[in-house]
Amino acid sequence: MHRTDVCSVPAQGPTLSELGTVQTCAEHCPECFRSGLFFDPENAFGRCKQWPAPQGRACRRFIAEEAAASGAKCVLTHNPTWIIDPIDGTCNFVHRFPTVAVSIGFAVRQELEFGVIYHCTEERLYTGRRGRGAFCNGQRLRVSGETDLSKALVLTEIGPKRDPATLKLFLSNMERLLHAKAHGVRVIGSSTLALCHLASGAADAYYQFGLHCWDLAAATVIIREAGGIVIDTSGGPLDLMACRVVAASTREMAMLIAQALQTINYGRDDEK
Ligand SMILES: Nc1ncnc2c1ncn2[C@@H]1O[C@H](CO)[C@@H](O)[C@H]1OP(=O)(O)O
Ligand SMILES: [Mg+2]
């Protein structure tokens, strides 16, 4: 999908360009923002007099799944940072299972500012900007507000490790939720789209060990702006680099799930 396709999606909610007017950067160079240069990674800073390279280059950073796979360090600094998963649901993609997304998050001073997730086969564009709401193709998103686990549809993903000890923990976590009478548990193969289902009220909770910051960054803004909760599996605040998460439509539901889970250790993104 081309950048301009995202920008041209009609929406009552913010477009990608609007989402990009992150205040700190806009203040730094309003002209650059008005012209849309901010979204042209190769040219933006070379053509922007007020924010010239190399300062500009040093100012914006990228964390992306493929870059990490090639050995790039995943460190979230205070600089404006794009956090990108170019294909989320890779296994689905390989099998032509139609649940695949592109996920783009943006953080400034380690604070998630906006997120965009594109459901490629259903042409649904999910967006969220801190303080400005979350939308899907222009429709405002709201979480379900469910607090009762027996009425909850809970989503999770299996995680990359398949050794016997890890699988035992994964299955035991699912068993605990089923014993606690969760209405249903689903694995759809895309963390980002599972989290979008939570934001739209189609599911009530999500948990996972073994996902990465690029699976979480954009979705976290979208869920929070839809009224949901995103926390660490310990029940504490979310740590984007900790490779684990509980998200839910209410804090009550998030805590119920966090308390039921046994930890599966995947290390940290910023220590790999
Ligand atoms: N090493 C890995 N192997 C399989 N899935 C992974 C993974 N790391 C993250 N995941 C994510 O877990 C979910 C199901 O596998 C997907 O969202 C997938 O993202 P990915 O498709 O971008 O790898
Ligand atoms: Mg992914």
TrEMBL record:
<comment type="similarity">
    <text>Belongs to the inositol monophosphatase superfamily.</text>
</comment>
<dbReference type="InterPro" id="IPR033942">
    <property type="entry name" value="IMPase"/>
</dbReference>
<feature type="binding site">
    <location>
        <position position="87"/>
    </location>
    <ligand>
        <name>Mg(2+)</name>
    </ligand>
</feature>
<feature type="binding site">
    <location>
        <position position="85"/>
    </location>
    <ligand>
        <name>Mg(2+)</name>
    </ligand>
</feature>
<dbReference type="Pfam" id="PF00459">
    <property type="entry name" value="Inositol_P"/>
</dbReference>
<feature type="binding site">
    <location>
        <position position="88"/>
    </location>
    <ligand>
        <name>Mg(2+)</name>
    </ligand>
</feature>
<keyword id="KW-0460">Magnesium</keyword>
<dbReference type="GO" id="GO:0008934">
    <property type="term" value="F:inositol monophosphate 1-phosphatase activity"/>
</dbReference>
<dbReference type="InterPro" id="IPR020583">
    <property type="entry name" value="Inositol_monoP_metal-BS"/>
</dbReference>
<dbReference type="GO" id="GO:0006021">
    <property type="term" value="P:inositol biosynthetic process"/>
</dbReference>
<dbReference type="GO" id="GO:0007165">
    <property type="term" value="P:signal transduction"/>
</dbReference>
<dbReference type="InterPro" id="IPR020552">
    <property type="entry name" value="Inositol_monoPase_Li-sen"/>
</dbReference>
<dbReference type="InterPro" id="IPR020550">
    <property type="entry name" value="Inositol_monophosphatase_CS"/>
</dbReference>
<feature type="binding site">
    <location>
        <position position="65"/>
    </location>
    <ligand>
        <name>Mg(2+)</name>
    </ligand>
</feature>
<comment type="pathway">
    <text>Polyol metabolism; myo-inositol biosynthesis; myo-inositol from D-glucose 6-phosphate: step 2/2.</text>
</comment>
<keyword id="KW-0479">Metal-binding</keyword>
<dbReference type="GO" id="GO:0046872">
    <property type="term" value="F:metal ion binding"/>
</dbReference>
<keyword id="KW-0378">Hydrolase</keyword>
<dbReference type="InterPro" id="IPR000760">
    <property type="entry name" value="Inositol_monophosphatase-like"/>
</dbReference>
<protein>
    <recommendedName>
        <fullName>Inositol-1-monophosphatase</fullName>
        <ecNumber>3.1.3.25</ecNumber>
    </recommendedName>
</protein>
<dbReference type="GO" id="GO:0046854">
    <property type="term" value="P:phosphatidylinositol phosphate biosynthetic process"/>
</dbReference>
<feature type="binding site">
    <location>
        <position position="215"/>
    </location>
    <ligand>
        <name>Mg(2+)</name>
    </ligand>
</feature>
